[in-house]
Amino acid sequence: MKKIILLLLTLLTAAACQSRMDITDELKKANGKVYHLTAPYKNTEITITFSGNSFSGFAGVNNYFGNIEIKNNQIFIKDIGRTRMAGPEKTMKIEEDYIKSLQASNKLSVNKNELRIGYLKFTQK
């Protein structure tokens, strides 16, 4: 019984520490690095790079860019702009879904060479 209680306390402590993760510090870890999207879409050329409070990347057909605002330890991806090239319908759909997912995300974390924005997963290459 003592082992179970100790395990639960350890898990609760770990969860509390993770919830206090400072998103500004996480963003600093990602600054200047190029990340490639690995999930939920595989085998795409989608990338993202952060520079201070802005970001840019390649969304599959178009280049994109925008600004980041941090409030209450949440990230808000705003003012997304893109080039206006057309491509294959499937790739354009993935690009549109990706941009919408970025805009809907408010969490960011970096662990070694992995970046997560909401449910999007990226790897630094």
Structure commentary:
By secondary structure, the chain is α+β, with helices and mostly antiparallel strands. It has a single domain (22-124), classed as Lipocalin. 34% of the residues lie in helices and 38% in strands. The protein is built from three helices and eight strands, in the order ααβββββαβββ. The chain has helices at 2-19, 23-30, 89-104, and strands spanning 34-39, 47-51, 54-58, 63-71, 74-82, 108-111, 114-117, 120-124. The longest helix has 18 residues, at 2-19. The radius of gyration is 17 Å and the shape is globular. The model is unreliable at 14-19 (pLDDT under 50).
Summarize the structure.
This protein is of the alpha+beta class and 125 residues long. Helix content is 34%, strand content 38%.
* Total of DSSP H or I helical runs spanning 4+ residues: 3
Strand content: 35-45%
Mean pLDDT: 88
Number of strands: 8
Distance between the termini: 45 Å
Keywords for this entry:
alpha+beta, 8 strands, single chain
Give a topology summary:
Blueprint: H1 2-19, H2 23-30, E1 34-39, E2 47-51, E3 54-58, E4 63-71, E5 74-82, H3 89-104, E6 108-111, E7 114-117, E8 120-124
Antiparallel strand pairs: 1-2, 1-8, 2-3, 3-4, 4-5, 6-7, 7-8
